[in-house]
Amino acid sequence: MKHTFSIISLAALLGGGLPIQAKLNVVATVPDFGAIAEEVGGDKVKVTSIARGTEDAHFVDARPSYIRVLNQADVLDEGGAELEIGWLPPLVNGARNARILSDAPGHVVLSRGIRLLEVPTGPVDRSMGDVHPLGNPHFWTDPANGKAIANALSEAFSRLDPANAALYQANAQKFDERLDKKIVEWTKLMEPYRGTKVVTYHKSFNYFLERFGLELAGTIEPKPGIEPSPSYINGLIPRLKSEGAKLVLIEPFRPRKTPEYVAQAIGARLVLAPTSVGGNEKVKDYFSLFDYDLAQIVAALKEPK
Ligand SMILES: [Zn+2]
Prior knowledge:
Blueprint: H1 2-13, E1 24-28, H2 31-41, E2 45-49, H3 65-71, E3 75-78, H4 88-95, E4 107-109, H5 143-160, H6 165-190, E5 197-200, H7 206-211, E6 215-219, H8 230-243, E7 247-250, H9 257-266, E8 269-272, H10 286-302
Parallel strand pairs: 1-2, 1-3, 3-4, 5-6, 5-7, 7-8
Helix pairs in contact: 2-5, 3-4, 5-6, 6-10, 8-9
Zinc ion (ZN) binds at residues 58, 131-132, 137-138, 202-204, 224.
């Protein structure tokens, strides 16, 4: 009896026991990974995203109800590079689900397939509170990285649900082709604004800026995750002026007062742009995230201040 039990648990651990017709139960940390999981998985997956698009992905209000959600998960998609380190580990520990523990086939760390920006070359001093100690984890804001995310998810889903592997691969390929077409369109739209200097609150747009030929002139935060002091802002303003920064680009959930003050002081336009699906009511999927943000930026840059 004891033997039979351990063989069954082992089969469950290895993920071989997916009942016929059951959907893969996918949990994504941020809604962008969830949105892409839906594109790749179609009606073969049930997707839950933990963070909302209106939240800072570093500081998510991780309600304990997600422990139950994670307990039932076949797949956990996380960004990694310490993006979720402040809130995900207690949920995963509480869930006691071997299918999503690190190194289980159901645990997907998406940053592993990405060329990360700003990876530190020397030793990391965590005492400073920098929330990007392993490099910049906001890689999904470059739509080209969306393709890498789709392909990693298609591989993971195919491994766990081989009966539908051909479908996952076909869906990922369709998604990649749609993105490729849109990237050409978006790049053309941004062509007249190449080299525009931009200020952001956090280093959350770096991949986005690089993709569309915009340049980061400075950030409202002195370091990722650290709120600015008045003396930092007073030193920042003349630097931004001499750089000729034209745009202050912030997520809608950031405090508004300091960015407004900086925009006013340097004669730049303030633009609210979500970095995640669900960041406002118009950003419903991974494509509309870029459609929306780029339209806001173009509208602000067209009209001289
Ligand atoms: Zn960050």
